[in-house]
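in:
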């Protein structure tokens, strides 16, 4: 797979193009490689062997391809369990969102951002996501807490935004009232 592009590369600030179906061989391969990266990066031995940073999401712009496609792999909360969310989301749209915000207590990170950017990233705690998979099949799923946050982070990449754009610059550790803090 192509190298992950770093913060400062203009592709990360562009609005990605919609993907047409059926997928080209190139787009099929991109989807496959992005998901493989996440799977390998979540295996501690393979992560160490290949010197990878662990990830739960990877958007096409992060590998230099300005298309509305992202792989998401939120691991199971219990050993040996089914992942909380696993799919390649293509042309994703958030069709509804909660008024309630959620934020990770540790803040967010990104495979394209090498430096630590401290602060809370307020996002909608619950979303309804509509997308197509690699076969062009349409899905509509309701997500909450961590999977909702991960998908919003990846969708931001498709709109030319990075997580730290959401951090309050004056008060980075101040979240909107009633924000659910997720550890």
């Amino acid at each position: 797979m192509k190298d992950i592009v770093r913060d400062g590369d203009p592709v990360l600030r562009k609005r990605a193009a919609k993907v047409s179906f059926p997928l080209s061989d190139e787009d099929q391969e991109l989807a496959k490689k992005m998901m493989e990266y996440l799977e390998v990066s979540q295996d501690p031995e393979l992560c160490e062997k290949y010197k990878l940073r662990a990830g739960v999401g990877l958007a096409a712009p992060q590998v230099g391809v300005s298309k509305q496609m992202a792989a998401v792999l939120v691991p199971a909360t219990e050993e040996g369990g089914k992942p909380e969310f696993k799919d390649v989301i293509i042309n994703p749209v958030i069709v509804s969102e909660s008024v309630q915000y959620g934020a990770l207590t540790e803040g967010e990170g990104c495979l394209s951002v090498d430096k630590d950017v401290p602060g809370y990233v307020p996002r909608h705690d619950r979303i309804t996501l509509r997308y197509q998979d690699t076969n062009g099949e349409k899905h509509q799923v309701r997500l909450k807490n961590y999977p909702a946050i991960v998908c919003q982070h990846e969708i931001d990449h498709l709109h030319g935004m990075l997580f730290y754009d959401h951090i309050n610059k004056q008060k980075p550790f101040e979240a909107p009232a009633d924000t659910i803090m997720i550890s």
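note: The helical segments are 25-41, 44-49, 145-158.
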